[in-house]
Design brief:
This protein has 3 domains: 50 residues; 122 residues, no CATH class; 44 residues. It is mainly alpha-helical. Helix 1 runs antiparallel to helix 2. 81% of the residues lie in helices and 0% in strands. The N and C termini lie far apart (75 Å). The chain is extended and about 90 Å long.
Length: 237
């Protein structure tokens, strides 16, 4: 099995477990699992359209070179929305947090963490293209670092555009359908109380385990003594 096939298989198995199997086991969320399957199929389509068999030597300005650029634009745009979807699915509280701290955490996640993820994926993709080109001895393939820089820049520009679309869309949604701030405050208070209770229970569990560990050595010593002590016969009594 080639490195590319191994990588795709590994990523697929991880995506299936995290996005399909885990939600079904944890929350019985079949709808979320189906949406994740849709994402996986979409990325498989992207891979088959712009995958390694499409990596060819392309001169600047040619239709082939433009088609490769379209792939990077679509990949950056779709990848950004996929990251946002996963954040909203697995961390919904991130988009409901109020106050300055909540706003800072949300903005850092959206406008720093998500672009970093998109950048890393685009960089790994370009490294794969470069490895493919050098493997085929295509010295002029992809026109060296200039094409790589353009591809990554296109992916990041489309990432920024996707973040802007996300901001405009949900700002309009929140204006048309505002959340009940009183109800939201009550839910946040309950969530905070449950989190505190969870931490207290975890602490109690740890203390119980430590107590058991402290009692383990004396119990072993006592059992060893009982094993080593010979049984008494009736004649010895």
């Amino acid at each position: 099995m080639s490195i590319q096939a191994l990588t795709v298989t590994t990523l697929t198995l991880i995506a299936v477990f995290v996005g399909v199997i885990y939600p079904i086991i944890k929350w019985r969320d079949w709808r979320g699992a189906l949406i994740c399957i849709g994402w996986i199929l979409m990325w498989y389509g992207f891979y088959f359209i712009w995958g390694p068999w499409k990596w060819r030597t392309a001169a600047f300005g040619t239709p082939e070179w433009m088609w490769d650029n379209y792939g990077h634009i679509l990949g950056g745009f779709s990848g950004t929305f996929h990251c946002i979807y996963e954040l909203r699915y697995f961390f919904p509280a991130l988009f409901l947090m109020q106050g300055r701290r909540g706003i800072i955490i949300r903005r850092f996640t959206l406008y720093a963490a998500v672009p970093i993820v998109v950048f890393m994926i685009a960089l790994l993709w370009e490294l794969g293209e470069m490895a493919h080109d050098f493997q085929n001895y295509a010295v002029e393939a992809q026109k060296g670092g200039a094409d790589t820089t353009i591809d990554i820049a296109l992916a990041m520009v489309s990432c920024g555009l996707a973040l802007l679309v996300h901001k405009i869309f949900f700002s309009s949604v929140n204006k048309l359908l505002p959340l009940d701030s009183k109800k939201l405050a009550e839910l946040e208070e309950r969530a905070e109380a449950l989190l505190t209770e969870r931490n207290d229970l975890i602490q109690d569990i740890r203390e119980l385990k430590r107590t058991q560990l402290k009692e383990l050595t004396p119990a072993w010593i006592q059992r060893f003594k009982e094993k080593m002590r010979p049984p008494l016969d009736e004649e010895d009594i």
